[in-house]
């Protein structure tokens, strides 16, 4: 996914009201931009960090700029815009990067499914194999003390728990189900469920895997010009 025009840089002042962020531009002026990440953003929103933002040409937007990337004091780059995770997943499937998800004839997004009124992020169809339901999650929580160890989630997620129940149901009904972790933090080299943050999610994930839900982890390469998923990472409990 290329940024056109390329992202512009600034310095983070603060994030507040979940959706708003104040930044300082290189000329010293301040600006309020939109933050698409409603999560805890642990380690991703430290005041003083360098950030990159995009600009929308939609005249109806109150805040035309969106926060896209952060660079931490350790030099790690993080994509904080969670909207990008699904876009990156679709691109990686269509370009053949995710080898485990090839061989399907049709790709759909945001399709209603399950008994809990959910929408699956990606649905793959083929005449020769079962439907494939793919739930996409972005991983940005790094444990600095454990080299390269990333975790999901970064806060208790009842929504994520629901998605695991739905994926498990799809497998039990004869379909294929995938939990796809898009690793959007340059410092993360392996992923585990955050038992210390959301024990229920960790338990549901273990059960889902036992029932046949597959877990894939793919890491992104991040720059102010482009983001793309490039390699598979290890997942372990």
What is the annotated CATH architecture of the largest domain?
3-Layer(aba) Sandwich
Gyration radius over CA: 18 Å
The mean pLDDT is: 95
CATH class of the largest domain: Alpha Beta
Overall number of structural domains: 2
- Number of DSSP helical runs: 3
- Major pleated sheet: 6 strands, antiparallel
Give the strand tally.
16
- Tell me the strand percentage band: 35-45%
Give unreliable regions as ranges: none
CATH topology of the largest domain: Trna Endonuclease, Chain: A, domain 1
Structural class: alpha+beta
Strand order in space, largest sheet: 3-2-1-4-5-6
Listing every helix as H and every strand as E from the N terminus to the C terminus, the arrangement reads EEEEEEHEEEEEHEEHEEE
Percent helix range? 10-25%
Shape field: globular
CA(first)-CA(last) distance: 31 Å
Summarize the structure.
By secondary structure, this protein is an alpha+beta fold. It has helices at 83-94, 158-172, 199-211, and strands at residues 8-16, 20-24, 30-34, 50-55, 65-71, 77-79, 106-113, 118-126, 129-139, 141-143, 149-152, 176-183, 190-193, 214-222, 227-232, 234-235. The chain has two domains: 8-79, OB fold (Dihydrolipoamide Acetyltransferase, E2P), CATH 2.40.50.580; 83-235, Trna Endonuclease, Chain: A, domain 1.
